[in-house]
Design brief:
There is one protein chain. With 805 residues, the chain is α+β, with helices and mostly antiparallel strands. The protein has six domains: 65 residues, Phenylalanyl-tRNA Synthetase, Chain B, domain 1 (2-Layer Sandwich), CATH 3.30.56.10; 119 residues, Nucleic acid-binding proteins (OB fold (Dihydrolipoamide Acetyltransferase, E2P)), CATH 2.40.50.140; 204 residues, Phenylalanyl-tRNA Synthetase, Chain B, domain 3 (3-Layer(bba) Sandwich), CATH 3.50.40; 70 residues, 2-Layer Sandwich (Phenylalanyl-tRNA Synthetase, Chain B, domain 1), CATH 3.30.56.10; 201 residues, Bira Bifunctional Protein, Domain 2 (BirA Bifunctional Protein, domain 2, 2-Layer Sandwich), CATH 3.30.930; 88 residues, Alpha-Beta Plaits (2-Layer Sandwich), CATH 3.30.70. It has 21 helices and 41 strands. A hairpin with a 4-residue loop joins strand 25 and strand 26. The protein starts with a strand and ends with a strand. It is found in: Cytoplasm. Keywords: Aminoacyl-tRNA synthetase, ATP-binding, Cytoplasm, Ligase, Magnesium, Metal-binding, Nucleotide-binding, Protein biosynthesis, RNA-binding, tRNA-binding.
């Protein structure tokens, strides 16, 4: 919001405060000031000149030699390249010694041998943006009104003697998106009450609005307030300079008197308006409704918009003529031929306007205000002011009455708090008088006593609804810099990590000890990536209004983010990457409006586990390297019992022959395997292995108490067995059979050899195991071990048709 200090001075006495000081005081009350611009500090030697002659320069197709009266004894000669310069015009002249905003210093010079004693200026040379320059001055100089005084400073005519304070308005302070709102704010800061001009509308009593227009709203929730006036017999002319000046400094291009008045009122009241060409409406009926499927509307920017039932439109009873709160239709916009104006002032449902603007990628000054909220107490006042201005500037008359639908009346909000609550919250010792003064400065009615403070908040401050808001207002106006700095006082309570925190900390320490580096990925990603690698069915949770398509959905797996991180590092010539992440994934909860947030741990490796050195041979990462990390981690947690790995082909982006689900008993708790070669190739990765585990499922497992046993006094023994089985037989299946038939003294089973190749039948593999036996109470007997070992071999033969070697 760009605030003109001169415009603000129409409401308040700012003579005792400089623009810079005012900006600092505004910042101290919580509204950030982005910039204070004072063009008059750098622009000098700019005067009003009158062009007496303008002739084309010989041998030039665009330069003109002019003589300009600048209020001196003799006219000065200036060479000008503007195509619209001609005799009789009042123009802006930069005399020798002037310095323009682009750093150009004007001096006496020659162009093609012709002396030029200055420069006739265009608006962009004076610092105005191309987006605000009136169309008539886009390609040439700006012509001042005929009553401009020759020789006087040109700055006041363009408002360049003004200071502009640019405010960064947060969504909760949308009241400051209007000059009147800023007037109240600055009035509170300076302990003044702003004085606003009272506007009266002179109506044509012989005609009534009911003869001209009838307003209806299909759903009053979509448009709780809708009002319309009619101004007839108007002439659509150029706006006066004072109006153009205010619009340009606010960043809005002047168009014509009718459109400019709607923008001016929007800036002053914060109330967007829209002017229709009444005759182009071709109907007395105005119906506000949702768009129908398949309807279209060509908006003022010339684009054809495909409408849907999520869009609110203004219709002439049949077809759309405007996109409510966003932009008018090209079929009813005001033109030079317009003679009757239908002027709209309304309140539209803010969420609906925001969705419409975003879905059509069509944001405007109007839509931003509707989205953030409006002062409902000034809807009619703004309409009346605009109608009076249009009638005055266009020599028209206002038809008597207002056509309206008003489902909600503006109401003041009553908020109650206590002095003790305010002081306790702020750490202050404010008195009743101090707090009463604050509300007087804010122009709020307040009943302030030692026991209770009851504040009546006017509709212009719709952001205030609870007592915390009242405390904030007291803090702002009293002065954040006046609030003492204190430390919180509370009892020191000894604390300790919860079981979950210990679980997570142990995991983090183990992963880093295993050589993995912690990564932190963004929880939002694309809809496609969000469901990659997910162990839970269903679509991801999508945001209604994402900041971008890359941040539309909440992730269902940590692996998609880790994969992006690995790819990022590999693309920057980091060959060996090993990352892990602990974070939340998100799933739909059918019993709640909020998603379930589940803590997962995931890891990913690519490149080599061991690089080539003079001592060691290069060893690429593989499934077993990652499985070893996971097995050791589970062992650290005491969870190896009942954990097993089951091959799966159900994950599209995982290698179908090197992927397994991690199960505890029959419950899936994780995923481990190798990235699909096609996916790896698309990302320019070598073999990449990964895992992801639901930590909350593991945490819920009751491990029981830890039991300690003394070191056995008696020696153990071992037996080795080699067997040939089908290559489809899993190691885990073999171990399971060995445990089931190994007897009570079997302590451990270790695979020490796996072979396929020469002397082994195709489709089969040789596996060699070492079985350790121990009786902690006595020395084992040879026959006991032999009996149990034979039982194991027989069970293997029976279960897998194994050939014992």
């Amino acid at each position: 919001m760009k605030v003109s200090v001169k415009w603000l001075s129409e409401y308040l006495d700012l003579s005792a405060v400089s623009p810079t000081e005012l900006a600092e005081r505004i910042t101290l009350t919580g509204i950030e000031v982005e910039e204070v611009s004072m063009p008059y500090e750098t622009l000098t030697h700019l005067v009003v000149g009158e062009v007496e002659t303008a002739e084309r320069m010989k041998d030039s197709d665009h330069l003109n030699v002019t003589t300009v009266n600048v209020g001196e004894d003799e006219p000065v000669q200036i060479v000008c390249g503007a195509p619209n310069v001609k005799a009789g015009q009042k123009v802006i002249v930069a005399l020798p010694g002037a310095r323009l905003t682009n750093g150009l210093k004007i001096k006496k010079s020659k162009l093609r041998g012709v002396v030029s004693n200055g420069m006739i200026c265009s608006l962009d040379e004076l610092g105005f943006s191309d987006s605000v320059i009136p169309k008539k001055a886009e390609d040439g100089i700006y012509v001042l009104p005929d009553d401009a005084e020759v020789g006087s400073s040109a700055l006041p005519y363009l408002g360049l003697d003004d200071a502009i304070i640019e405010l960064d308005i947060t969504p909760n302070r949308a009241d400051a998106l209007s000059m009147r709102g800023v007037g109240y704010e600055v009035g509170a800061i300076l302990s003044q009450k702003p004085a606003f001009e009272e506007v009266t509308v002179e109506e044509e009593q012989s005609e009534n609005i009911s003869d001209w227009v009838n307003v209806q709203v299909e759903d009053e929730k979509d448009a709780p307030v809708y009002q319309m006036r009619v101004i007839k017999d108007v002439e659509v002319t150029e706006s006066p300079l004072w109006l153009q000046r205010k619009l340009m400094h606010a960043g809005i291009r002047p168009i014509d008197a009718i459109v400019d008045v709607t923008n001016y009122i929007m800036l002053e009241y914060g109330q967007p308006l829209h002017a229709f060409d009444y005759d182009a409406l071709d109907s007395r009926e105005i119906l506000v409704r949702r768009a129908k499927e398949g309807e279209t509307l060509i908006t003022l920017d010339g684009q054809e918009r495909q409408l849907s039932p999520d869009h609110l439109v203004i219709t002439n009873g049949q077809k759309p003529v405007g996109l409510a709160g966003v932009m008018g239709g090209e079929n009813t916009h005001v033109t030079k031929e317009t003679r009757t104006v239908a002027l709209e002032s309304a309140v539209f449902e803010s969420v609906l306007i925001r969705k419409t603007a975003q879905s059509l990628n069509l944001r405007s000054e109007s839509s931003s205000r509707f989205e953030k909220g409006l002062n409902r107490a000034t809807v009619e006042q703004a309409l009346n002011h605009a109608a009076a201005l249009m009638a005055s500037l266009g020599n028209g008359t206002v038809v008597s009455g207002i056509a309206h639908v008003e489902a909600q009346k503006p109401e003041s909000q009553t908020v109650t708090t206590t002095l003790a609550y305010i002081n306790r919250t702020l750490g202050t010792a404010l008195t009743v008088a101090d707090v009463r003064t604050v509300f007087e400065r804010l122009d709020f009615e307040a009943d302030v006593t030692e026991e209770t403070i009851t504040v009546t908040v006017p509709p212009r401050r719709w952001d205030i609804a609870i007592q915390a808001d009242i405390v904030e207002e007291v803090a702002r106006i009293y002065g954040y810099n006046n609030i003492p700095s204190t430390l919180p006082t509370n009892e020191s309570v000894p604390g300790e990590l919860t079981r979950e925190q210990k679980f997570e900390r142990l995991t983090r320490h183990y992963m880093e000890g295993a050589g993995l580096t912690q990564a932190i990925s963004y929880a939002l990603t694309t809809s496609a990536e969000a469901k990659d690698f997910s162990m839970e069915p269903g679509d991801p949770i999508e945001l209604d209004w994402p900041m971008s398509e890359e941040h539309r959905a909440l992730r269902k797996s940590l692996l998609s983010g880790l994969l992006d991180n690995v790819q990022y590092n590999v693309a920057r010539q980091i060959k060996n990457v090993a990352l892990y992440e602990i974070g939340h994934v998100f799933h739909h909860n059918p019993n709640s409006t909020l998603p379930d947030e589940i803590n997962h741990v995931a890891g990913m490796m690519t490149g080599n586990v061991v690089d080539n050195t003079w001592q060691e041979t290069e060893q690429p990462v593989d499934y077993f390297a990652m499985k070893g990390i996971v097995d050791e981690w589970l062992d650290h947690l005491g969870l190896t019992e009942d954990i097993h790995y089951v091959p799966t082909k159900s994950y599209e982006k995982m290698h179908p022959g090197r992927t397994a689900e991690i199960k505890w008993k029959d419950q899936v708790v994780g995923l481990i395997g190798q990235l699909h070669p096609v996916e790896a190739a698309e990302r320019d990765l070598q073999d990449t292995v990964l895992f992801e585990i639901n930590m909350e499922k593991l945490f819920a497992i009751d491990k029981g108490d830890v039991k300690y046993e003394s070191v056995p006094k008696y020696p153990g023994t071992s037996r080795d067995v080699a067997l040939v089985v089908e290559e489809s037989v899993l190691h885990e299946e073999i171990v399971s059979v060995m445990k089931e038939h190994g007897g009570k003294w079997l302590q451990s089973i270790r695979l020490f050899d796996l072979y396929q190749g020469e002397n082994i039948q195709e489709g089969k593999k040789s596996m060699a195991y070492s079985l350790a036996y121990l009786n902690p109470q006595a020395t084992l007997k040879e026959e006991e071990v032999t009996r149990d070992f034979e039982a194991v071999k027989n069970a293997l033969i029976e279960a897998f048709q194994a050939e014992i070697r």
